UniProtKB/TrEMBL annotation:
It is found in: Cell membrane. Its main location: membrane. The keyword Membrane applies. Belongs to the binding-protein-dependent transport system permease family. The keyword Transport applies. This is Multiple sugar transport system permease protein. It comes from Actinomadura namibiensis.
Length: 290
């Protein structure tokens, strides 16, 4: 065997070993990340004496599984109402966020004004203000508008969280689109708005998907504002309704809590994986071009 052939085989073995190591680490990381979800799924169907037995394996059924706790969640609590409220609020906030963030991001990315960059930074800094510092003042706003204890209170307030970071993300993605694209559309007879709608929007679709996923996830998981603005159960969302219904004093309906977590997480995880490639593209392009 020649020295060149031996060197080639050595590099090939190193390449295979490196690939195996990378995939092995990825599989291990996936298993570690999946363990909490698996534990929640198993716990949702466990009997009380199995769940509270310290000798039991937390990832296996040491006693026969039971659907009673899931049935209790779906029939004895307004969980489905909470889910419907969450979907309604999430869809409305996503629509408002796109309606406000797309024009703002386009104007900051395309219109050459001296205040463009400082304005973009200022918009992003608004997102860094913690909700715990704002909910008292925003509560006064909600009360003055007569929206207390309604879903509209969350629909009106949540864009203050989602719009700033969405604008910042879309600015970076719009900067990745060459200006020649819309200039050519305008030469063909379209207005600036028409060029934006017909030529630019299809190219920034991954960024729009990233904004939609980010906005809906943030809206569904937000707790402080939802707790401050809504107090009646029929108007609550999942993030506040589930704890108030399944934590009563020092009594925790633990299996039903885990069932609620699983039922809520599965659709979001499915949609996230469905648009995963576009979601990652949107965030990475925004990060590079900002």
């Amino acid at each position: 065997m020649s020295e060149t052939e031996a060197l080639r085989r050595r590099y090939a073995r190193r390449h295979v070993a490196a690939r195996v190591g990378v995939y092995g680490a990825a599989v291990l990381a996936a298993l570690v990340c999946a363990l909490p979800f698996l534990w929640s799924l198993v716990s949702a169907f466990k009997q009380n004496r199995d769940l509270y037995n310290p000798e039991s394996n937390p990832f296996a059924f040491n006693e026969p599984a039971t659907p009673d706790h899931v049935r209790f969640l779906l029939t004895d609590t307004p969980f489905l109402t909470f889910v419907a409220n969450t979907l309604l609020v999430g869809a409305a906030v996503v629509a408002l966020t796109l309606l406000m963030s797309l024009p703002a991001a386009y104007s900051l990315a395309r219109l050459n004004r001296p205040w463009g960059t400082p304005m973009g930074i200022a918009i992003f800094l608004v997102y860094l203000v913690p909700p715990s510092l704002l909910f008292l003042s925003l509560t006064r706003v909600v009360v003055s508008l007569g929206l207390e204890d309604t879903l509209w209170s969350m629909i009106v307030v949540y864009p203050t969280i989602t719009v700033p970071v969405s604008v910042w993300l879309l600015i970076g993605f719009l900067k990745a689109v060459p200006k020649d694209v819309e200039e050519q559309a305008m030469v063909d007879g379209h207005s600036r708005l028409g060029a934006f709608a017909r030529a630019v929007l299809p190219l920034v679709f991954p960024g729009i998907v990233a904004v939609v996923v980010f906005t809906f996830t943030l809206t569904a998981s937000e707790f402080v504002y939802a707790l401050a603005f809504v107090s009646s159960s029929p108007k609550m969302v999942v993030s506040t309704g589930v704890p108030t219904q399944l934590i009563r004093g020092d009594v925790f309906f633990w299996q039903s809590l885990q069932a609620a977590a699983v039922v809520t997480a599965m659709p979001i995880a499915f949609l996230f994986n469905l648009f995963l490639d576009r979601f990652v593209t949107g965030f990475t392009m925004g990060a590079v071009k900002t």
